[in-house]
Amino acid sequence: MKIIVNSIFVEDQEKALEFYTNTLKFVKKHDVPVGEHRWLTLVSPDEQDGTELLLEPNEHPAAKEFQQKIFADGIPATMFGVTDIHKEYERLLESGVKFTMEPTEMGDITMAVFDDTCGNLIQIAQQ
């Protein structure tokens, strides 16, 4: 068994698509109309056959409440791995990304957290 799709709740799929492709540099894999929304998935440019990230609309009240509460508590919705966290941190800062935690060493891992502008905090980590 392996993970093939992981979802993240977003307030606006189009805004999320813009941020995740233009700023984070993920690649759109699927964009299929599903009623008033879309089955909209992204993949890493380095692993285009790897795990997909589904940009899931947060329209269900439970999803919206969950997203808002973990954001308010400073809890990242997900984590992405990076090869060089300091380089990625600087690149994202130059792109206007707002960080809530600068790169911080925690044992063998260095982590940073930023606001994805779509209702989530995202953690990046270098092992």
TrEMBL record:
Residues 1-127 form the VOC domain. InterPro entries: Glyas_Bleomycin-R_OHBP_Dase (IPR029068), Glyas_Fos-R_dOase_dom (IPR004360), VOC_core (IPR037523). Pfam families: Glyoxalase. Transmembrane segments: none annotated. This is VOC family protein. It comes from Halobacillus salinus.
